[in-house]
Amino acid sequence: MGIRHVIVAVLLVGTLAVEADNTGTDSTNRNAWGENAGWANAGPTNNEVTVHFNERSGWLSGYVWGENVGWIRMGSAGDGPYSNSTSNNWGVNMADSGNLSGYAWGENVGWIAFPTNGNGGVTIDPTTGNFAGHAWGENIGWLKFKGSSPDYGVRTLAFDTQAQGTPNWWLDHHNVTEGYDAGDGVLAWKKYVMDTDPNAAGDYLRITAVTNVPAATDVAFTPASARRYYTLVRCEELTQGDWSNVVGQVAVQYGTPGEKTMQDTNVATQAFYTVEVQVAP
Hints:
With 281 residues, the protein is mainly β. It has helices at residues 168-174, 188-194; strands spanning 2-6, 25-34, 38-41, 50-53, 57-61, 63-66, 70-73, 92-95, 100-106, 110-114, 121-124, 131-137, 141-144, 146-147, 152-156, 206-213, 216-224, 229-235, 244-245, 258-264, 270-278.
């Protein structure tokens, strides 16, 4: 089998969402409620609660403001995740599941706990950015982040996406825009799909080798991510042939990152290949 040409392609899947430009709080969904504390605003001007995330873990910064309780700070100075073990390293952390843990602090109300033992607990839906659940303060009781009658809640903009489908948290984490190019011609939004570093020139998905083996062709590529899905696609004639997925090599997820190999057992005189990467299967 003679391999004349190899192509690497990227496929982006996902829904284009409303326009958003930060990881702060949605101005129309920013209120929590406590029976003893009253309304608490998670989106005060210039001090809004902000979610920082890296697809594995995250943390919160910023402030909640309550007319009856004053300022409540979501984390100590510096970046999280917070250890919550010293007087200068405390705050609210977020797991990749969206579960929050740790402590916030208010000068007028003391510590507010975000429990993880089933007694209360606050979560953020990574799909919608909506908060839900309760935090607990010894001096103010339960603080509820979503309710009805009246309908209220807190929503972060961190999981909203930009025009090409890139989430705000990812752009914030890497401090880039979707159109940023580190110098290798691969725009940042494509590197989000590839799960590579948009600030590192040359860090993008590529085929590294095509090898004929008995009754098959091996296509090696790098770098694979354990958080993405890969499909090997083939075509025998570029000018008039159709591209088709290779059977058994569709939406493959690998348990570890690095260089991987996909195999095509179809027999042909020549073949062209792409490796498509998807954020979700």
